[in-house]
Amino acid sequence: MKTDEHEYCVRIKTDQEKQRYLGRPGVTLTVTELHVEAPEEVTEGETADLTCNTTCSLTDPTFIWYKDGRPLTTKTIKNNQLHLQTVSSEDAGSYSCAVRGSQHLRSTAHSLRVRYPPKNVSVSISPFGEIVEDSSVTLTCSSDGNPPVKIYIWFKEGETSSVGSGQNYSIINITADHTGLYYCVAQNDLGAQRMKAKATTAPVHLLKTSPVYTRMLLSLRSSTETITSSVYHTHNCSNSPLDSHS
To answer: Torsion-angle region of residue 212: left (phi > 0), alpha (psi -120 to 50) or beta?
Structure first.
């Protein structure tokens, strides 16, 4: 390692108190090595250049780049530089380099962090399954971001203000009135992403002596995926069928 560069001397000791010898000048150790020069952190959408520098004199070397220990073959490599065009969160990782023919002598790894706004926002529901009227249900919003998401805000379509904040939103004493379109907004310093949870009701007719269950479909939508969950609640009514709601 570069930190091993020093002058090394030989010291000779004998069994006589005053017979000690130090060989000077000593031997100077010079270490040649590869090292990566790159920013510590970049923001998604920016460009980044990583440079593989060496203190050794090389004739027309070919540089090989590694990410998380695996050779890179899909990135732009020019001379001793790795160019990351339009950085994404997937570019975060540990980078090192080597000279072809001496791949066993890699540089010290350099960690590249990528800052990005919330993505992969998803909503889960608990408990999952049948929930009787006057029970409660909790919606949980999750997302990926750097810096980590710390602000979650819940909205319901048609209402002028938010209905809750925090990663979890609980609906207490659930009724058909809770049907609607809910929004989970995840936010960090770089932006926000919204996940929609649309709830619609459709009647499920059972025996006359049984309560009528109204199925509430929560269709969870984001820009990248659609997940469908279901909750149920009972509605006391007469023996006649319920009208459908939407």
So the answer is: beta
First-to-final CA distance of the chain: 69
Structure tokens at 69: 């220990």
Strand partners, 75: none
Beta strands in 7-47 (DSSP E): 7-13, 20-28, 34-37, 41-43
Residues 6+ apart with CB under 8 A from 84: 42, 47, 48, 49, 50, 75, 91
Beta-strand runs (E) in 147-240: 151-156, 164-165, 168-171, 181-188, 191-204, 212-221, 226-235
The tokens describing 109, both together, are 């790894």
CA dist., res. 52 & res. 54, Å (int): 7
Does residue 60 or residue 245 have the better pLDDT?
A: 60
Measured CA to CA, the distance from residue 65 to residue 80 in angstroms comes to 9
Whether 130 shows a pLDDT value over 60: the answer reads yes
Cα–Cα distances (Å) from 52 to 73, 76, 108, 138, in that order, read: 16, 14, 10, 51
- On the question of a cis peptide bond just before residue 61, with omega within 30 degrees of 0, the verdict is no
CA distance 95 to 220: 37
Q: Which two tokens stand for residue 164?
A: 């809750």
CB contact burial 24-62 (16+ within 10 A = b; e otherwise): eeeeeeeeebbebebeeebebeeebebebebeeeeeebe
Task: State if pTM tops 0.85.
Answer: no
